[in-house]
Specification:
Elements lengths: L2 H7 L10 E2 L4 E2 L3 E2 L4 E2 L2 E2 L4 E2 L3 E2 L4 E2 L3 E2 L4 E2 L3 E2 L4 E2 L3 E2 L4 E2 L3 E2 L4 E2 L3 E2 L4 E2 L3 E2 L4 E2 L3 E2 L4 E2 L3 E2 L4 E2 L3 E2 L4 E2 L9 E3 L2 E2 L4 E2 L2 E2 L7 E3 L2 E2 L1
Length: about 200
């Protein structure tokens, strides 16, 4: 499916409980959703071999990217997710950028694979944010991020230089089994934590 056809399929107003079904779609060229207002969309199992640019996009409905494969850079810088953002089992072969993104619902990246870096600087999550069993290589930075609904990192595998400087975690911080390089990921890696931590 060409990127232009996907853009056209998403040119519908958001309606509560409705979404555009694009499960398993294979996008033939780079998908440009930058700056667009988007309805709910299901990209479960989709393939974006040339990557995606959703810089500044506004996802009004539920956003499913579970099991999606991004063959080139995936840019979600400044994106606004007004409902849940589901990226569990997603594979990022190029850089994954969520700098300044805002997650009003949950941000779920369970078992996601970041092969060429993950940038979440200054991102804000209002619901629970989960990196359970996520694996990342390259430059990984959450510098300045804030998680208002807690952070769940059970079994995550992150590089030794993963940056959590000046972050804030409000609510539960779950770090059991989480690794930062060869050592455990500990609460001391974060700027400030409020509430309980589990390790």
């Amino acid at each position: 499916m060409r990127a232009e056809a996907i853009q056209q399929a998403l040119e519908v107003p958001w309606r509560h409980g409705a979404h555009v079904d694009l499960r398993g779609v294979v996008c033939e060229d780079r998908l440009d959703l930058s700056g667009l207002d988007l309805p709910g969309v299901d990209f479960t199992g989709a393939r974006f071999d040339a990557g995606i640019d959703a810089t500044g996009a506004r996802f009004a409905g539920l956003s499913w990217f579970g099991g999606a494969a991004f063959g080139d850079d995936a840019a979600f810088d400044g994106a606004l997710f007004l409902n849940d953002a589901r990226f569990e089992d997603a594979s990022f072969s190029g850089g994954a950028r969520f700098t300044g993104a805002e997650f009003r619902g949950i941000g779920r990246f369970d078992r996601a694979r970041f092969q060429a870096g993950a940038r979440f600087e200054d991102a804000v999550a209002y619901g629970n944010f989960s990196l359970q069993e996520a694996k990342a290589a390259g430059v990984v930075s959450f510098h300045g991020a804030e998680w208002l609904g807690g952070l769940w990192c059970h079994g995550a595998r992150l590089p030794a230089d993963a940056d959590f400087g000046e972050t804030q975690v409000h609510g539960r911080l779950w770090l059991r089994g989480a690794r930062r390089g060869n050592g455990s990921l500990t609460p001391q890696a974060f700027g400030m934590t409020f509430g309980y931590d589990y390790r």
